[in-house]
Amino acid sequence: MIAGWFAVYYRELLILQRRLSRQIASWAVAPLLYLIAFGYAMGGQVQIEGHSYLEFLIPGLVAMNSMTTAFAIASDINIARFYWHIFEEFQAAPISNIAYVTGEVLAGVTRALLSVGIILLLGRLFGVALSYNPLFWLATVLNSFVFASLAVGLAMVVKSHADQAMLSSFVITPMAFLGGTFFPVDRLPLWAQKALLLLPLTHASGAIRQASFGNTPNIFSYLLLAVMGSLFFCIAFYCVNIARD
Amino acid sequence: MIRVENLKKYYKSLPALKGVNLNVAKGELFAYLGPNGAGKTTTIRILTGLTRLSSGNAYLNGFHIDKASLQARNQSGLVPQAINLDQELTVWENLDIHGRLFHLPSRKRAASIHHLLEYVGLLDRKNSLVKHLSGGLKRRVMMARALVHSPAILFLDEPTVGLDANIRRRIWALIKQIQQDGTTIFLTTHYIEEAEFLADRVAFLDLGEIVAMDTPQNSMARLGTWALDEVQGGNIKTTYFNTREEAQRCPANQGDSFTVRRVNLEDAFLALTGKKIQ
Lengths: 245, 278
Fold this sequence. Notes:
The complex is a heterodimer. Chain A is globular. The two termini of chain A are 22 Å apart. In chain A, helix 1 runs parallel beside helix 5 and helix 2 runs antiparallel to helix 7. Helices cover 77% and strands 2% of the residues of chain A. A two-stranded antiparallel ribbon of chain A has the order 1-2. Chain A is an all-alpha fold. By secondary structure, chain B is an alpha/beta fold. Chain B has 2 domains: 2-218, Rossmann fold (3-Layer(aba) Sandwich), CATH 3.40.50.300; 224-262. In chain B, 35% of the residues lie in helices and 29% in strands. Chain B has helices spanning 40-47, 69-74, 91-101, 106-119, 135-147, 165-180, 192-198, 216-221, 244-249, 265-273, and strands at 2-11, 14-24, 29-33, 55-60, 63-64, 76-79, 153-157, 184-189, 201-206, 209-214, 226-232, 235-241, 257-262. Chain A binds chain B through residues 3-4, 6-8, 10-11, 14-15, 18-19, 84-86, 88-96, 244-245, and chain B through 48-52, 70-71, 73-74, 76, 78, 80, 82-89, 93, 97-98, 100-103.
């Protein structure tokens, strides 16, 4: 049923390989600026939950970057679809929609994990060493899976590059700042905390942070991310069908 | 090899195809001729699985394009109108990904790609990035890519659009060679001379309907062999004759200026629809 997924994934890997040096630089820029501005300059004296602000910030950046990088696969699909018409090559091939979605989602997850690796390296340079245990990586992978699946689905529905940029502005940017990346959500009013619990990134950043502090994360966050990821994956599968018209 | 029955396609309420029927035999080179917007690309998109049909049936090598879509897609190769190669990848990588998408095992894939790059004269460019190739070379890469999985049917959607006359003729020679090697070819074009030179049979499509279907020779012979174009007060009036002498002797050629030429498929289309193709 998913025969052919590797061809889709392999193509994305080849393209990533061609752009790798540029891509690494672009993945490093934003986290580096956040670390300098918020972590080093402003947060030097701040302690949160018994940790320095830099230690608090790194897991938040991991959650945020895995989200934005996984979601960025949408822009590449968009360009392949509307500008280079490469999507037609997949549509005309004897591969199922689920194979296509699997290949693209895995590509999004792969990129997200590479960008997380860059953040962890930057963290080391800033003298931050946390516990990057299996629970840390599981939460990161699930978070990437959620947003890569969402990206593939939305990329099939949007009608232009402009729509795609608008989606990022309205969905991803607010989530990046409000999803527990830069500050603890429990400092907000109760109603805001409840509202933010609806966002997958709030659960991802919470789970990633707790795991990296060596604490036991909330299992509910993992379940929620897995369910949301699976739901978005199914929606993406359905949306590839729509794109055929 | 290709069977289409009462094929209809609507974009919302706008009809793009109004009930197309056609059969293309194995090894035939079938040209689908019509002006822009006639429904040529829509037909190809439906037959290759890029667009869903609204109603009717279509079969590729016996496989229904909707009910057995994966098997049907396996029968065909597509060279679309727009260049849709991965510009950042090499020629070889583009063909390799295509072979993987069509589930070719690695050894067979490599042999097929090697053979096809030799076939289209691009073996020495196999490691070139596609973005560094000219438009004509990109077209040849697209032809090779469409043939990697040895399809029974090759769909060519305006394969020479935007190319200069010299390169166009090289592409024609390649298309003829592919047909001679046993592939059924379905070609859309709005270049008259392309259809005349290549096609075994031609269908004229206008406003989503096939208005005539025959060999190019028969399509043209209905009008005569020679045409007399006269410019009369800014309009061109065309009259048809069986011999060149008749055309030249015609008393009507008293207009501002006139030209005697061979009848072409444009004349046949014009006679049927009152419109020009190009």
